[in-house]
């Protein structure tokens, strides 16, 4: 609370504190070591996160770092692999909105092992952290996802997306009559969107090598300590896996005026 004097009259200004702010992560891991073979020739001379979305002039990881900063993140550990020196050189020369540290796996550890290795370099081991795959281009409130994670007392929370299927769908009635055609509708299934909130103890549950989605996640799910946060309807999300994804992302961002 602060008292201000104006025209001889004392006014009291109250600042409302956010009760959830202290539990939200301020650190994140970006997994950026994939070879991106389906994005060739774009990835012949650069790692997948360094591929630029046409029309933006910024690589995927650049968009991710800006978004993380907007969501309150101050420190990011980038786990490098394929053509790590190219990514490291760009990070060293770019004007970044967060503090960035890079780590390089000397041998393949798998996604779970890679997460564990990167998490060991986070500046606040006693605090929660975000993680994202280096090929995800999205915008939604990570703060809301962090609050969702805390409210459910989860050890790990997965962001869930409903991607659009690449084909047109045909809608029929109960008698088999075609009633409508829907171009690229969202799937009815939720998928792992490649974004996470992890409590501090999660790193200790990760394998030294291997895939956490086949080991740690099923274990937590059985114990009801794994949560799923649906990305809000209308929020942008796309995984950049192929050249077609780049083209579609450019069209979508142009339509959104970004």
Automatic annotation (TrEMBL):
InterPro entries: Mannose-1P_guanyltransferase, NTP_transferase_dom, Nucleotide-diphossugar_trans. Residues 28-254 form the Nucleotidyl transferase domain. It comes from the Bacteria. It holds the Pfam family NTP_transferase. PANTHER family: SUGAR-1-PHOSPHATE GUANYL TRANSFERASE. This is Nucleotidyltransferase family protein. It comes from Streptomyces plumbiresistens.
